[in-house]
Amino acid sequence: MEYVTLNNGVKMPLEGFGVFQVPEAAVCEQAVSDALAVGYRLIDTAAAYFNEEAVGAAIAKSAVPREELFITTKLWIQDASYEGAKKAFQISMDKLGLTYLDLYLIHQPMSDYYGAWRAMEELYKEGKIRAIGVCNFYPDRLVDLCVNANITPAVNQVELHPFFAQEGAIATMKEFTVQPEAWGPLAEGKHEIFTHPVLTEIAQKYGKTAAQVTLRWNVQRGVVIIPKSIHKKRMEENFAIWDFTLSDKDMATINALDLGHSEIIDHSAAETAKWLNGWKIHE
Ligand SMILES: NC(=O)c1ccc[n+]([C@@H]2O[C@H](COP(=O)([O-])OP(=O)(O)OC[C@H]3O[C@@H](n4cnc5c(N)ncnc54)[C@H](OP(=O)(O)O)[C@@H]3O)[C@@H](O)[C@H]2O)c1
Question: In the chain, what are the domains?
């Protein structure tokens, strides 16, 4: 495993394991236990995934020392305010069964996220969180927060894969010392990514799969990845990307697959803002 050093000196694994769309407790707990056994140390959950307890149960049963783990959870829009964030953080910690969190992220750039950020800055200064960051902050929102906040976000987790490479957004993150992290690093299986002819042809040269080449491409450009799978064999496959290096030519060939837009979600659409704000995770 390789690590990146965040803008506050904290080391973060370059590869982790995501648990979006695994709401069933038993399935999620088993998946996290399997991922820890495979060697993943970063686990990415969220209040809005409804599986923080299952993640916590797997952590509690694991023999991996707490200091080796890097646990991320996220604050949902409904709780995006100063008071809301303080309360939601404690609820997440209770569900996870943790005394400190490695990374707390604002899940969406919506509602009173400045109030939430001030609460997160305080929790960080109190030592309850090792790093604070954001998700889905497109360059305009990210720069605005970086310019106005007391603490610059350590991480911005956005959709990043060969079909939505976001080179410009990554350049802005790097300019402001914000570590890019990829959600949907396998494009959530879209665009026939696992059998894509270009990715498959490159993969064959290295004795790897299209999934492995896809993940390697992101880490090679300095992006943290958190692929999700409920299948242990795929977890192993996705983790076996540290024994090869893509050539500059192959990196460029993969860069050329960029469509320049998401096929999963359009964060600039009015409908998306309506839909996300309407998604409630508690009363
Ligand atoms: N901040 C945000 O707004 C946000 C949004 C989305 C996701 N995320 C985070 O990012 C993580 C990863 O993104 P994601 O879960 O959306 O999508 P993803 O990791 O790009 O893709 C997951 C899909 O690919 C399949 N898969 C995984 N490895 C495979 C392999 N080697 N061969 C074939 N199929 C494979 C999985 O199926 P099986 O499980 O059946 O194997 C699943 O259907 C999430 O789990 C979550 O933690 C964050």
Answer: 3-278 (3.20.20.100)
Q: Are 222 and 251 in contact (CB under 8 A)?
A: no
pTM of the model: 0.98
* CA 114 to centroid of chain Cα atoms: 21
- Digit-coded pLDDT (tens) for 6-35: 999 999 999 999 999 998 999 999 999 999
DSSP three-state, residue 81: coil
Residue whose CA is closest, atom 29 of ligand 1?
234
- Active centre residues (catalytic): 49
Residue at 163: amino acid letter = F
One-letter amino acid of 170: I
Residues in the chain: 283
CB 227 near ligand 1, within 6 Å: yes
Q: Tell me how far apart the alpha carbons of residues 183 and 181 are, in angstroms, rounded to a whole number.
A: 7
Q: How far is CA 57 from the centre of its chain?
A: 20
Closest residue CA from atom 48 of ligand 1:
183
d(CA 75, CA 60): 22
List, for residues 260-269, the tens digit of each pLDDT value: 999 999 999 9
> Atom 27 of ligand 1 has which residue's CA nearest to it?
229
Would you list the DSSP string of 250-262? Answer: HHHHHHTT--SS-
Spatial neighbors of 102 by CB under 8 A, at least 6 apart, are: 10, 12, 42, 69, 70, 71, 72, 129, 130, 131
CA 186 to centroid of ligand 1, rounded, Å: 6
